[in-house]
Amino acid sequence: MISLTQFFNQLWLQYTQICPQAVSIHQLFEKAGEPMVNDHLAFRTFADSEIAIDNLQEELFTLGYSPLDNYHFKNKKLNARCYIHQSSPTKIFISELLWLQLSDQTQEIIQPIITQISEHISTYKNVNLNAGRLWQLPDYADYQRLLKESEYAAWLSVWGLRANHFTLFINYLKQYPNLQLVVDLLVEQGYKLNNAGGIIKGTEQDKLIQASTLADKVEVIFADAGAQKISSCYYEFAQRFEQDNGQLFQGFVASSADKIFESTNQGFAND
Q1: So what's the pLDDT on residue 23?
Q2: Residue 38 has what DSSP assignment?
């Protein structure tokens, strides 16, 4: 069994290959002598498949994680679950697309993906959260069709199982002890931020405030359209506040998370 450190390192290496801004953001804070503590990782997957949340969570249980809470995003047709670890500040957030609730046209694009996942599982048995895409890359035309109904579906169809984002835990910072200071620094350094619902999402009353960059765009070669730049991954920042019991809030705020999902929106992402 791999250690938590190995688990995170593998995911970070995979993530930064398509999210170069994450490396430069780390360097920015490391040069300032700040501790780089990760608040959470997020993953996307398909419900009603061999890689639904209930199946993927087995890897987390092996690593010592336990479920904390469930969430539902009606408009985006997503379910999600948060996991915590007694020995690590890093939470895990997994969301799954309820693709059977999408239009018939979209389901026709996704169904072959689900079939290929089943074939992969039957051959290789175990699937890890860094498995990547377990199906053939869709045509660019299908990617664009998915974008029209579900940006989440389009992103997942290309990138598969991987960390969608890492999150800097603001509470551990010394020179930038609140999220507004971090946001000001990022803007000063030229990073483009997700302003859906405001740059800072949530309030102190929610016990969690968040902000995120817009996703990088990277070149992907499609069989029917050649090289195209599409959204990849982004970096998030979270500040947590104490609850009445004196403990930091560990969960998520659904209304804020709904806006964070927009960070990979193809129309907003960084060129």
Answers
A1: 97
A2: B
Please name the residue ranges forming H helices in the chain.
4-16, 20-31, 53-62, 104-124, 140-149, 151-159, 179-188, 254-260
Is 270's pLDDT higher than 60? no
In CATH, the number for domain 4-264 is 3.10.180.50
Contact between residue 38 and residue 169 where contact means Cβ atoms under 8 Å apart:
yes
Tell which residue, 225, 201, 178, 235, has the closest CA to residue 27: 235
pLDDT digits (tens, 9 = 90+) for 163-211: 999 999 999 999 999 999 999 999 999 999 999 999 999 999 999 999 9
- Dump the DSSP string for 134-193: -SPPPPHHHHHHHHHH-HHHHHHHHH-BS-SEEEEEGGG-SS--SHHHHHHHHHHTT--B
The angle, 0 to 180 degrees and rounded to 10, between the axes of the packed helices 4-16 and 20-31 is 120
As a whole number of angstroms, the distance between CA 214 and CA 20 comes to: 12
